[in-house]
């Protein structure tokens, strides 16, 4: 929706001890849909609740997402939002994705390209 109304979006996601933060700027760099593979689209079509994911992982003997992981991702999102509000886009994650792997304490950045034929590039009104 942010792309469709020309507003920046600071996205954050997490599952178990993995998380990521991405900044999407309208008309600059890739949008959310530009980053989706066919497999990603299939996974999104099978969306489940956080409770279901936690119960499934507990049954497999895995540690579910902890509140600390949520706090880490949220803090990074706030940090990125402040960069946008202050106009410091060059130092922001605009067009990039910061991946946090707390299982092995690894942080890394990936970058993707804007797909000009992406169906997500339209505006309302």
How would you briefly describe this protein structure?
The chain is of the alpha+beta class. The protein has helices at residues 38-45, 50-59, 67-85, and strands at residues 9-15, 18-24, 96-101, 106-111. Helix content is 30%, strand content 21%.
Largest beta sheet: what is the strand line-up? 1-2-3-4
Global outline: globular
Total DSSP helices: 3
Radius of gyration: 16 Å
N→C terminal distance: 13 Å
Total DSSP E strands: 4
Low-confidence segments, ≥5 residues, pLDDT <50? none
Largest sheet: 4 strands, antiparallel
Given helix and strand content, the structural type is alpha+beta
Overall pLDDT level: 87
Strand content: 15-25%
Helix content: 25-40%
Helix and strand sequence: EEHHHEE
Give an overview of the whole structure:
This protein has about 120 residues and is of the alpha+beta class. The protein is about 30% helix and about 20% strand. It contains 3 helices and 4 strands. The protein has helices spanning about 40-45, 50-60, 65-85, and strands spanning about 10-15, 20-25, 95-100, 105-110. Strands 1-2-3-4 form a 4-stranded antiparallel β-sheet, covered by helices on one side. Strand 3 (about 95-100) and strand 4 form a beta hairpin. The model has no long low-confidence stretch (mean pLDDT about 85).
Helix and strand topology:
Blueprint: E1 9-15, E2 18-24, H1 38-45, H2 50-59, H3 67-85, E3 96-101, E4 106-111
Antiparallel strand pairs: 1-2, 2-3, 3-4
Core attributes:
alpha+beta; 30% helix; single chain; 125 residues
